[in-house]
Structures are given as structure tokens and as C-alpha cells.
Design brief:
Blueprint lengths: L3 H15 L17 H11 L6 H7 L18 H22 L5 H11 L2 H11 L13 H5 L2 H19 L1 H11 L6 H8 L2 H11 L6 E8 L6 E8 L2 E8 L2 H21 L6
Antiparallel strand pairs: 1-2, 2-3
Helix pairs in contact: 3-8, 4-5, 4-8, 4-9, 6-8, 8-9, 11-12
């Protein structure tokens, strides 16, 4: 009885997709297909009833359903996840572009990555209680999947894609603004945007590279007005240099150049010899 409505929902969903009693799905779109508690949840997060209930069921259908021998399901939310990822990227990119006109392309990309990543999306999904409504295969570990970072992030992206297909871009944008932008601490993001040393450490850690090493290579000027030039090396390779009256500022400039160098190397790798 614990997940009884999900079983009924899954059966109704797949009958609708297959056409039921010889009736093709495209000519048959039952408005009462969604369980009442699921319908209330969707109206709460999407702002009103949708025209295509099947697509929301697909958005919440975990891939374990397609591997369950007790069901005939052939479609999970993975395709909608692909679409929702693109819609999220567009909406977040547009918001950052308009909200931070002074930010460079690299900073905008970095800030978007802090918002649209699996951990962050899973957190948004958890805040919504999205995991409670996932449709999961009978033989799968329900409790584990409902708390899974991957499953929650996938479902959030899928729901975004479903809203886009059912209601259009404006509705998808409204959903993202309410469920994502409204919960992001942009003050901390902006503060970290210019902390290039921290960002460089995060980058090296993500690629399992030894921590960056800063070296003062030149000091010029009188004692009270020195100018420092500092180089930073990653894995023994010098990839940034900065010059400033304070060592800390010179290190930040060196780290910023190093980040740009590493990102460019990613985008334009050297041809193999």
C-alpha cells in the first residue's frame, strides 16, 4: 500500500501511451490520469493545470521502471532530462547575462556551473519534495532512489523539460526563477567570483592536480612602495603571472591568468603527436 498510487499511475500511464483498448494515445488524453496528490503538487510548482498529463508522468518515471520485469514500460525521464538541461542552461545563462553586466564570459560560465550542477539541482528538488512523487520500479530500492542526488537532479531537469513542452518557454522560465533563482545566494557567488585563488584550488582539486604553487620572481621599487611579480605553477607548469603593489593582489592576478590559461587549454587541446 505504501506506493500503491504509483503502481496505478504507472499502469494508467503506459496504457495511455499504448492506446489502451485499441485507441491511439494521440486521440486520447485523459484529464484525470494524474493521482490527486500528484496533481496538486504539479499545480503548486507549475502554477496551474497542464494540458498534457502524460508528459509529467514521464518526467517522474525513473529508469528503474523500464528494467522492471513486472511492467511493460519502455520510456523513462532520460530524454526529458536532456531537454530540461538545455532549458535550464538557457534560462540561467540569460539571467546571469542580464544581472551581471560587468562579468566576463569566464565568470558567467563559472557562476552558471555553481547553480546548474547535480548537487545544486538535487537540493532544489529536495526542497520541493520532488522525490516523494518519483515513479520507481517495483524491484528497485525505493528509499535509496528517493534520496539519490542523481535521481533527484535528473527529475528536476525532466520536470523543467516537461513544463517547457507543455506550457512553453515563459512558463519554464517562471518555474526556474521561482525554484532556482529565488533560492540562490548570489551575494556569496559574486564574492567568490573574484577570489581567483580559491577558484584555482577548486579547479586543481577537481582534476586531481597538485595544489598551485606561488613564487615571487621579482620585487621592484623602494621599501615602502614595492611592486611584486608572482608566478603560479600547476603540476610544475607555470600558467599565470601577476604584478601588483601587494603580494596578495599579485597572487590573485596570477591565479586569474592561470584559470584563463587552463580553460583555454580545455577548449583548444593540443593535437596529439
Amino acid at each position: 500500500m505504501e506506493q500503491f498510487w504509483q503502481k496505478l499511475t504507472s499502469l494508467a500511464f503506459h496504457r495511455a501511451l499504448s492506446g489502451g483498448n485499441g485507441e491511439h494515445a494521440s486521440t486520447r488524453r485523459p484529464k484525470n490520469l494524474l493521482p490527486e496528490n500528484f496533481n496538486r503538487f504539479l499545480q503548486q510548482v507549475t502554477g496551474g493545470p497542464g494540458d498534457n498529463p502524460e508528459i509529467y508522468l514521464t518526467a517522474f518515471t525513473h529508469r528503474s521502471v523500464t528494467h522492471d520485469p513486472q511492467t511493460s514500460a519502455t520510456q523513462s525521464n532520460q530524454r526529458l532530462e536532456f531537454l530540461g538541461d538545455a532549458v535550464l542552461g538557457l534560462v540561467i545563462s540569460e539571467y546571469l547575462y542580464r544581472a551581471f553586466p560587468e562579468s566576463a564570459e569566464g565568470d558567467l560560465s563559472s557562476n552558471r556551473a555553481k547553480i546548474v550542477n547535480r548537487k545544486a539541482l538535487a537540493g532544489f528538488a529536495q526542497d520541493m519534495g520532488l522525490g516523494e512523487h518519483l515513479i520507481i520500479g517495483e524491484s528497485a530500492d525505493h528509499s535509496k532512489i528517493r534520496c539519490s542526488e542523481s535521481a533527484l537532479a535528473d527529475a528536476f531537469e525532466s520536470l523543467t523539460g516537461a513544463i517547457y513542452l507543455d506550457k512553453g518557454l515563459d512558463a519554464a522560465r517562471k518555474f526556474v526563477m521561482e525554484q532556482v533563482i529565488g533560492h540562490v545566494d548570489f551575494k556569496s557567488i559574486v564574492a567568490s567570483e573574484h577570489n581567483y585563488k580559491s577558484r584555482l584550488i577548486e579547479y586543481t582539486q577537481s582534476y586531481h592536480i597538485p595544489p598551485p604553487v606561488y613564487t615571487v620572481i621579482a620585487q621592484e621599487g623602494a621599501e615602502h612602495e614595492k611592486i611584486f611579480t608572482i608566478e603560479v605553477a600547476c603540476a610544475g607548469i607555470v600558467c599565470g603571472r601577476g604584478t601588483a603593489p601587494r603580494k596578495k593582489d599579485a597572487e590573485q592576478l596570477a591565479a586569474r591568468e592561470a584559470i584563463d590559461t587552463l580553460l583555454q587549454a580545455e577548449q583548444h587541446p593540443s593535437p596529439e603527436k
